[in-house]
Amino acid sequence: MAALQDDMVGRNSVNLKIIIGMFNEDFTGVPAVVDLFLELYNAKVPVDLVIDHSVQVDVARSENAVQANMELEFQRNKERFAFLKWGSNAFHNMLVVPPGSGIVHQVNLEYLARVVFNNEGILYPDSVVGTDSHTTMIDGLGVAGWGVGGIEAEAAMLGQPMSMVLPGVVGFKLSGKLRNGVTATDLVLTVTQMLRKHGVVGKFVEFYGEGIGELPLADRATIANMSRNMEQPWDSSLWIMLHCNT
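Above: the chain's sequence. Below: its structure in token form.
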């Protein structure tokens, strides 16, 4: 797993102009729509807002559980949903995916991502930033995507470039294919363990090798989904701090 060696890596920042597109879940999406409403601005890039964070489970273990929970959700969030529906009609470049459609990063993978799009006769590779920590799931489809904060998301919506430190790149070679009985979960847990030991905080991880072609989309998406968890959040310094405070 050799990392890209470059004097620019890890020190210089670059500005990324987002051509297309971004998505929000409703937790951060509602404040963004409110801000657009206050200034009457249209989003400069296509924005998909997926309502999935307001779901609560009140009814379970019955045949009508899904329908009952959906009805209760609409009762609780009637004004909220009405506002978002108004926003989808009032602003250009905004699509609101109604509640009950699925989890935001799953909806993006199955319905929203275009992989390649045509803009005035020029083909561009699809890319996305989102306010969901598992936005990276779309990388399994070959679309560059990663999570951002609410302020960064609003800036991108208004056409502002995103600034990021130029990351190093860690290559992870996959060869062969999974044996019978070995699942994508087994694979991703092993990959996560290896990358945590290697250290990939603040870096891109690129998977390559003939083994990629042996993995169906569902398995590649599983690995990409877990990339948020491949960082190493625990070290000796944190342990010492917690020990001293107890």
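The chain has two domains: 1-13+165-246, 18-160.
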